[in-house]
Amino acid sequence: MRPFLFSLLLLACTARAEFTNEQQQVPLEVLPTDASKAKVVLLAGTPSNKPGQHEYFAGCALLMDWLKDMPGVAPVMVADGWPKNEAVLEGARSVVIYMDGGDRLSFLTPDRWARMKALVDAGTGLVILHQAIDCPPDRAADFKNWFGAVFQSDIGCRGHWDVKFDAVPEHAINQGLVPFELLKDGWLYNLHFAEKGVTHLLACPMPDSSRKSEAAKAHAGRAETVAWAFERPDGGRSFGFTGCDLHGNWAEANQRKLLLNGILWTSKLDVPEKGVNSETTPDALAKNWDRKVFLKKAAAKK
């Protein structure tokens, strides 16, 4: 038999095997009964990456619990990236997008893209987290108009490391924040930002070894923006944060405050002077993780 040499093939393929027993207890796509409250829709992406990373379902479930404690807010959580009942999106004051980006974005089909555009045109608030800020190149112009920024591989960089935010500029989303650190999280930076309407909220130094693009290498040592606010020309508001890769960092009160403040701001609700306070526990952080199916094919020799 002729010898064949197969190169190492590692497929980190993840899929929704099924909801866990815990996840089955989380209310999904439950419409608010009080129309006076601001509806916030949380779009949690499909399972991705290793356990403890990209825990979109668990992260959105935490956000939903914290938002329920806020007067005047009615959170609605959606699994697998897009609602089965699109009526969920009707009248939303803000939509939170927490999922894989690029070709795995949940709203790239023409009908869903049109629905997203309609939300933008209606002035709906938008919150976009982590890899969701990455989109196919042919959608980049719309993304920048919708979110105030977009990640593209021509200049953008990404990776995992510790960061420290030494400065907290004044903005409603930053109310109550103090300088803080996030450990071993995943970051996207050197984004394409909109020319007008963007306020840079949090920036930090990045390892120069992570600057893979020539455009990024030209700015060695520069603090890079990873959180921003965007006042859109249509009157809507958007907020982005490229962290939230590592689920354990929801234990950091400043990260929780940043996200909850951002959701309020994009919903055009008042942010408390000291920001939104929230509590969590190790048990709460350990709940609702995805059951991830990893397929691995090792090299074979004959």
TrEMBL record:
Gene3D superfamilies: 3.40.50.880. It comes from the Bacteria. Residues 85-266 form the ThuA-like domain. Keywords: Signal. Pfam families: ThuA. Residues 1-17 form the signal peptide. The keyword Nucleotide-binding does not apply. Coiled coil: none annotated. This is Trehalose utilization protein. It comes from Prosthecobacter fusiformis.
